[in-house]
Amino acid sequence: MQLMLFQEYKFSSTNSKKAKPFLKWAGGKTQILSEIDKRLPRELKNGKKMRYIEPFVGSGAVLFHLLSNYNIEKAYIIDINENLINLYKVIKNNVCDLIEYLKILERKFLNSNGEERKKIYYSKRKEFNKLKNNKIKKAALLIFLNRTCYNGLYRVNSKGEFNVPFGRYKNPKILDEENLINVSLALKNVEILCDDFEISKNFIDENTFVYIDPPYRPLSNTSNFTSYFNNTFDDNEQIRLKNFFDFITNKGAKILLSNSDPKNTDPNDNFFDELYKNYIIERILAKRMINSKGSKRGYIYELLIRNYYE
Length: 310
Description:
By secondary structure, the protein is α/β, with parallel strands linked by helices. Helix content is 38%, strand content 15%. The protein has helices at residues 2-9, 33-38, 42-45, 61-69, 82-110, 114-130, 135-148, 177-186, 235-250, 271-275; strands at residues 50-54, 72-79, 190-194, 208-212, 254-260, 280-287, 299-306. Strand 1, helix 4 (61-69) and strand 2 form a beta-alpha-beta unit.
């Protein structure tokens, strides 16, 4: 099945260049890619082959941008979210089976009315939370839920259960077959790991570019997306991450890190300015894409922190 679909699609070596994120994701970096691109290491921009590591891969916007435009000889992506990592692995290794599951889910959902869609959503959410052994079906359900839930959020409760409510979309695109196949091709030389970010120490040397996009430090009590897995990325974790930043700096890696800017809400909050005072800190404008109130989806400052000059 996998080979047959690949042949029907008439793959060329350029298909992987078209890969783009396959999930909606809180904090996804598509809208600030141009700012990130401006600050990439000079060696990478000049065509040098480099290793790429992303310890909090999320939706992979930076990953796919680099794979499409730069000379990445080997990439490692890591995330502690096992459902997300399972999805990456299924797309890499079993994309055709995944597509067949999604065809069935999409057809049933789009052929139903509003109340029926709501029932289907909660039924599939329950199934997703209980499913243990079928990795391909689990991956398909994650895409389905991501495309049909409220605001495209990924959030879990203390039991690790996905608990985002139903989102009322008229015609959600549940299956993007072409992009899934392009992503599968793009991932062929990518190592995919479910682990803590510090595992990436094992793969980093002086010819490595590392992009770090951790769960953001919340700007308020109501903007906390740091529990997208069933643990909390608090200030102690941010400090542990900074120690990791120091460690891989000493290994010679080029590192770019993004995070929220606490000065958006408290001009006297110098948490990151003090924590990363020995590095280059820049503030860029970014659009807040996910908020419960549309009126609050505006532009705010985010931080880009690096250990090298452009």
